[in-house]
Amino acid sequence: MRIALFVTCVNDTVFPDTGRAVVRLLERLGHEVVFPEAQTCCGQMHYNTGYRREAQRLAVSFVKTFSDADAVLVPSGSCAAMIRDNYPRLGETGSPLDREVAELAPRVYDLAELLVDALGVVDVGAYFPHTVTYHPTCHGLRVLGLGERPYTLLRAVRGLELRELDGATECCGFGGTFAMKNAEVSSAMGWDKARSVATTGAEVLCAVDNSCLMHIGGVLNRQRSGVRVMHLAEILASTEEEPARI
Amino acid sequence: MSRTFVGMPDFPTAAAEATRDPQLRHNLREATHTIRDKRDSAVGELDDWAQLRAAGKAIKDRTLRHLDVYLEQLESAITAAGGTVHWAADADEANDIVTRLVRDTGEREVVKVKSMATQEIELNNALERAGINAYETDLAELIVQLGDDLPSHILVPAIHRNRAEIREIFLRTMAEWGVPAPENLSDHPEALAEAARVHLRRRFLDTKVAISGANFAVADTGTLVVLESEGNGRMCLTLPETLISVVGIEKIVPSWSDLDVFLQLLPRSSTGERMNPYTSTWTGPAEGDGPRNFHVVLLDNGRTDTLADEVGRQALRCIRCSACLNICPVYERTGGHAYGSVYPGPIGAILNPQLHGTSGPVDASLPYASSLCGACYEVCPVAIDIPEVLVHLREQVVSGSGHAMEKATMGAAGWLLNDGRRLGLAQRALGAARSMIPRRAPGPAAAWTDTRDLPEIPERSFRRWWRDRANGGEGGQP
Amino acid sequence: MTGSRERILGRVRAALADVPRDERPDDVAVPRDYASAHTGDPIPTLVDRLEDYKAIVHRVATGELAEAIAETARRRSLARIVVPPDLPTEWTAATSASVVRDDGLAVDQLDAMDGVVTGCAVAVAETGTIVLDTGAAQGRRAISLIPDVHLCVVRADQVVNGVPEAVAQLDPHQPLTWISGPSATSDIELDRVEGVHGPRILEVLLTGE
Ligand code: SF4
């Protein structure tokens, strides 16, 4: 399958390893990845902060960039959720944006959905001999409804031991501008989440959203916990020949 | 005069302070986790919860879209049943009506059943100014009233107090208000409940006027419905001669048969019980049974403004179960006082700015009092999409004056992000400057770096790596 | 207050400008595909749910009701029992407690009673709820509220499975009291405690199975 990668602005700028892991993983599975260079940002931050018009402009640009794609992979749960759940609220009913979004949205996937639903794979041939715990993230859990998919993918990874995370469904406290506007509450939530993560004894905390991982990882680092955070793509891209560094 | 929320600081300020209070954090964590578990198991028992929730939402939507019809219907049904209906456009008018009605009875004392509407209009203060004493009878309301405190939860207004604190309040203050607490009072919940029983018993038997709210008002029959647990509601609704019920205009359900949905949704969402111990329904005064005089005050007080907003309107579906508070990770850490209103938590964050407008500092800060995690929407029995309304209200806040810095930043980010090439150039600049980015940042970014490390900025963006790879450049392997 | 009535209704209508003029309330569809009940086995479910919320249940064979009431009164040391005016006299025939028929007793007289015996209108199995509608053998609301012990007689044919069936059977023009166990509170640390202002003891006598 030919898959168009919308890497997202945060991954592009701060977490390029995730994008590279996605490319490696999908090419290994025999698929073609394209990266339309006109892409920028889904507009989530603007939308969530109340800047609807800016978000609308970015939505128009996203739709224009990806309208021809067979499948669009968005390796960030909250950005995929933005596109699927909030873009439909951005255009007036019956407007061109509204119609184009309705047409494109069903082809927009998060990584776990792409693999399990669109490509029908669970065992991606990955090898990752470490203990891992998984944080489901709010958008992955409640908006995309990823459910068991990420766990199924992780369980199929050779060498990987999955540890259950206490209070997994609870928000990590990132919340975009919330982390700045209500920094104390945000970090109180982050510290509680980091504590649950540390309690699992896992070496790696995995999620499908680098924003949440940046937040929890920032706390874990500050606590000198030694727990490393990794996007699901990086674990799934890891093989015996080319193991991911942790 | 009891305390009010007037003059509270904005949410971030109050929340930061509350978050640093270890006793409060502990009380809230225990309480919210207990009730969450109860709700989960009560809801989990019903395999048609999704259908009930959809029906509850639709019934409320039907009501709201035709509220004028139902209000008139309710009025005539109550009148036909022998009750008297009053209309109050705002808090002052409602307080005046109730004060006048109490004065007309010649009584100077009233007993109250827990009611959010009367809290909202600060009725007790208005009555006090008129020389009328209002006694709260719900245990948690009693704790708040005796402690000269503010409510911090919709269902359990004293949720921020633990048993030791409650015991201390009872010992210190009950005597001033009436029957004192026994000297050897322990802090066991049984003993504290018993002290409240003894304290209020005579009051129930003697007081001639009661004031209540209503959980539901049924338009086609004129029936009012009150759900409660302790029996204080039954006492107030049954023993006095005059009953005055203050009811928000959104409390209507169209028909008696609609209660089959709400009597399942509300208790399970609220106390996490299959059914609360007592539910009373009444349709006008009953011959030889209960109050002979019955008044209903229909309250607007900002609700029609909320109704006028097509996105925000859904907040009026709320049945005040408090499930959204109990599940909210922000509420769990800040408690209710930080929201500066009798309506705290996620519902408060969308209701207060709509009832009062977003011009005040507290109300303007409430739409941001959320990480948009969506847990509130998931548990809401009438499917209020609280994150959607929060974002909608943020739009209103930023469209007002102020926020210059943020607007400039968003504008610049928008400009940058509108073009893949521009973004690529900015990433190069950032990559080049990466060694100059401090681990602990000054200025506004300190809000982040005070408690969290920043990630390292990579030298090469994904975009550049992709381009290099396409050009067969070095390090092109994925 | 006509002024405010018209003002509020006017504001409501203005607020609903987006609702098409010809839309009628019933045009807003309400999906009614929720279940009418979640159990098919009402009696055991009722017993289970009543006990779960700390009511005491006795299953009593028809003909043994008077003895069961007498026994309960004895065990609870109830000296004075109030009953509604139309309570079947056989029900209290065996008790040695003094039985007072309510003919409009004052609250203080009610407060001097140790217990009350009533029937009910409907019982809802899956929520453990008994509904009193002030009809046959139930009396006015105050008599089942003020005494501390409530003995409630429920006939098997009064038990329905779920809440929707109960709502459909009940007459909203009667004052209704839905009772699920003794009074309780969770206001202290959300720890549930039975027994506050309403009767602290609820004993249910289930007959006619
Ligand atoms: S918004 Fe929903 S969950 Fe929150 S109190 Fe209202 S009905 Fe309950």
From TrEMBL, chain A:
GO cellular component: cytosol
Domain of life: Bacteria
Domain Cysteine-rich: 3-84, 132-216
Segments passing through the bilayer: none
MF term (GO), any: oxidoreductase activity
Record-given protein name: (Fe-S)-binding protein
Lineage: Bacteria, Bacillati, Actinomycetota, Actinomycetes, Streptosporangiales
UniProtKB/TrEMBL annotation, chain B:
Domain Lactate utilization protein B C-terminal: 401-469
Residue span(s) of domain LUD: 71-299
Keywords: 4Fe-4S, Electron transport, Iron, Iron-sulfur, Metal-binding, Repeat, Transport
Domain 4Fe-4S ferredoxin-type: 315-384
Gene Ontology BP terms: lactate metabolic process
Pfam families per the UniProt record, alphabetical: Fer4_8 (PF13183), LUD_dom (PF02589), LutB_C (PF11870)
Source taxon at top rank: Bacteria
GO molecular function, one term: 4 iron, 4 sulfur cluster binding
InterPro entries found in the cross-reference section: 4Fe4S_Fe-S-bd, FTHF_cligase-like_sf, Helical_ferredxn, LUD_dom, LutB/LldF, LutB_C, NagB/RpiA_transferase-like
PANTHER family in the cross-refs: LACTATE UTILIZATION PROTEIN B
Protein name from the UniProt record: Lactate utilization protein
From TrEMBL, chain C:
Coiled coil: none
Domain LUD positions: 46-206
InterPro entries linked to this entry: FTHF_cligase-like_sf, LUD_dom, NagB/RpiA_transferase-like
Top-level taxonomic group: Bacteria
Protein name: Lactate utilization protein C
Native source species: Halostreptopolyspora alba
Lineage: Bacteria, Bacillati, Actinomycetota, Actinomycetes, Streptosporangiales
